[in-house]
Amino acid sequence: MTVIAVDAEQILDSRGWPTLQVSLTLHDGTTVVASTPAGASTGAFEAAEVRDGGHSFQGRGVHKAVAAVTGEISELLMSTPWTSITEIDDALRELDGIPNLSRLGANSTVAVSMAAARGLAYATGFPLYRWISAVTGSTALLPVPHFNVLNGGAHAANELDFQEFMLAPIGAANEEHAIQAGSEIYHVLANKVNSAYGGVGLGDEGGFAPPISHPSEALDLLTDAILAAGYTTDQVKIAIDSAANGFYRGDGVYRLGGKDLNRQQLADYYVQLASDYPLWSIEDGFAEDDHQGWGILFDRISDKVQIVGDDLYVTDARRIQSGADNGYSNAALIKLNQIGTVSQTFDAIAVARQNSMRCMISHRSGETGDDFIADLAVGTGVGQIKAGAPARGERVVKYNRLMRIEKQEPTLRYGLE
């Protein structure tokens, strides 16, 4: 792949804050584009964004990142032909010179890396998901979508401590049916929420944010909506992202629903929720540095429930390996911008697989119209993706891409890896 021009610009993400869009022009005039998402609830160990500071956009502008792309990175990309994404990403990291990419910014490198992956796929003549499948040695698989339909924590202006309550159509016949189920239940849930609480706002990811404070209230709403929409709790299960960093008080104490719980009590609470509701997955049940809590939860419930590490791992292969070695979880969340390049994202998935851990591909709360993660989920064959509610353009573009892939290749299997 030969790059003859590089451009970048500041655009707005779904929360109205600046982010970065990168365009690479290839030797035949074809242009490939990618844009960077941004998180509201971020882990301490994520790769670093570069923001402008100052008054504009409360310091969140990305003109410095744009300059990094159109300056140093542009010179690098146009200096030689490229044959692999690893070659490009290694060069980007060497150019930055700092492990967390804080000089050029992970918001710069991830958009460049994603665009480069599209360019390399184009050069092979394969659709992006097929190129990813070939590069990673994976069997392509249409993933179970996880729809975030009730929001709390850092994503919503209510008193609900847990951040995400998701619908997971594990028993759907195919991708189109799964997305249909998510949409139908979402609209039934909307009626239930409006009837019970009147008009309510939406969280960052398109889910409803009713004035509730206890996870059991949210789980009751979801269970009722699943059944009212004509589905069973075998067909559609529930996943939660507790985002426990947000209610951790330190020294093993968590403030949940106005009460202080120690590690054992919080683990007991999760076990009870899994017994009372069709709960199949718990993400970030404990804080990122509370390794003792992670171990307790894993020992208590990992044989029945998927335990997912997000802030714990931040898509870092080394941290995932440590989690496997120490028995922290049986699954890892995968977010491109947490680690800063496509190839390192592939590495994180590979290490999880080597340790018999599942993976879930994820969006961020600040999203764009880029549908790269849909191809990433299909191509790596991990069997799971979360991209928010089945509403709002920046969310549904990912789900629509999944249905389009299924239409192109109707023989692809749907479901968990």
UniProtKB/TrEMBL annotation:
It catalyses: (2R)-2-phosphoglycerate = phosphoenolpyruvate + H2O. Residues 3-132 form the Enolase N-terminal domain. Its EC number is 4.2.1.11. The keyword Cytoplasm applies. It is found in: Cytoplasm; Secreted; Cell surface. Keywords: Cytoplasm, Glycolysis, Lyase, Magnesium, Metal-binding, Secreted. The keyword Metal-binding applies. One of its GO terms (molecular function) is phosphopyruvate hydratase activity. Binds a second Mg(2+) ion via substrate during catalysis. Pathway: Carbohydrate degradation; glycolysis; pyruvate from D-glyceraldehyde 3-phosphate: step 4/5. The active site is at E205 (proton donor), K335 (proton acceptor). SMART domains: Enolase_C (SM01192), Enolase_N (SM01193). (2R)-2-phosphoglycerate binds at Q163, K335, R364, S365, K386. Its cofactor is Mg(2+). Its main location: cytoplasm. Mg(2+) binds at D241, E283, D310. Residues 139-415 form the Enolase C-terminal TIM barrel domain. NCBIfam families: eno. PANTHER family: ENOLASE (PTHR11902). Catalyzes the reversible conversion of 2-phosphoglycerate (2-PG) into phosphoenolpyruvate (PEP). It is essential for the degradation of carbohydrates via glycolysis. Belongs to the enolase family. This is Enolase. It comes from Gryllotalpicola reticulitermitis.
